[in-house]
């Protein structure tokens, strides 16, 4: 199983980035997938998740600025991030879990997002 995150980079505050995560080795449509992030010196935190049917959950603080989506045919997960703030600087990870468990069993390697003010 492999989750490959990409799309990170450096951007000025107010800008946008789109992260992608390519999954392989799993039947993608059978998994809930999500984005997490870890800022320097902080614990990893949940950002958003999406089911195969498109139901989404967001952390309240990011609603309206971040949008999670997926393409089951391409085994791909996305995170559109708008109006970025310096507090969004973090390593962003994609993760997957089966519907039968609450444990995120598969993780990508992370992609760095740096927002400068």
Task: State the gist of this model.
The protein has 117 residues and is mainly β. Helices cover 0% and strands 54% of the residues. The chain has strands at residues 2-6, 9-12, 17-24, 31-38, 45-50, 56-58, 66-71, 76-81, 90-98, 106-107, 111-116.
What does this structure look like?
- The protein is mostly beta strands.
- 0% of the residues lie in helices and 54% in strands.
- It has no helices and eleven strands.
- The strands form two sheets. Strands 2, 4, 5, 6, 9, 10 and 11 form a seven-stranded mixed beta sheet that branches. The protein has a four-stranded antiparallel beta sheet with strand order 1-3-8-7, with no helix packed on it.
- The protein is globular, with a radius of gyration of 13 Å.
- It starts with a strand and ends with a strand.
Helix content: under 10%
Largest sheet, described in full? 7 strands, mixed
Low-confidence stretches: none
- Please report the number of helical segments: 0
Number of strands: 11
Strand % is over 45%
N/C terminus separation: 37 Å
Mean pLDDT: 97
Multimerization status: single chain
Q: Using only CA atoms, what is the Rg?
A: 13 Å
Structural class: mainly beta
**Shape estimate:** globular
Order of helices and strands: EEEEEEEEEEE
